[in-house]
């Protein structure tokens, strides 16, 4: 029964969605389910890459930590996402930490089992190539944003990438600290950028929810060469509250975990 349920879940994962039910069951039979509490270290940067992980529930962050201890968040992933593909292909050590932001349930497919099954189900290999191509394009776009965009432009792109539905909405937006770690900025400049986008009428914020009011305007703000809005060019506010305290998306609502911290859960399951 568990194999059938896992096979049904894999139908919602792009990597496996093109397979027949029987083919998905072949992968489901090889997977084992693991649970991680909030803040648990799932994968440690530099460890051997011996498995593919598929996120069945919860959310995780992918991060690297510099020698100075500064953390840079490369991505946050939710249900249906997967990670560990690079190590499956080249066998090299893990390129980043992965930490559970919320309690997470993951399916783990060991490298040898996955490769053996892929030799039988070549459509997965093509899907994997497409996913890696997409991530390479995403990486190119992020590099472009870091080089050519100011912080409000980077924030605009990040919000557009994460907003879904009509109107585009992020139900549980990243904290300002998390956004700063994702776009190479400080928390204070992200807070100012969020206020600029609100003052320009591009977004509205209600606690952790961000709603896009002007999708085209936000997209323009996220393109190289965009100029600040008229509201943002107005007079500075001399009496602003310190940004470490005042945040429209409350940073106190979530603890993103520590990518360098130890955890009993999953420490031996990388």
Automatic annotation (TrEMBL):
GO MF, any single term: DNA binding
Protein name, as recorded: Cyclic nucleotide-binding protein
UniProt keyword terms in alphabetical order: DNA-binding, Transcription, Transcription regulation
Region Disordered, annotated ranges: 219-270
InterPro entries the UniProt entry points to: cNMP-bd_CS, cNMP-bd_dom, cNMP-bd_dom_sf, Env_Response_Regulators, HTH_CRP, RmlC-like_jellyroll, Tscrpt_reg_HTH_GntR, WH-like_DNA-bd_sf
PROSITE patterns, sorted: CNMP_BINDING_1 (PS00888), CNMP_BINDING_2 (PS00889), CNMP_BINDING_3 (PS50042), HTH_CRP_2 (PS51063)
Start and end residues of each Cyclic nucleotide-binding domain: 15-135
Upper classification of the organism: Bacteria, Pseudomonadati, Gemmatimonadota, Gemmatimonadia, Gemmatimonadales
Classification via SMART domains: cNMP, HTH_CRP
Biological source species: Gemmatirosa kalamazoonensis
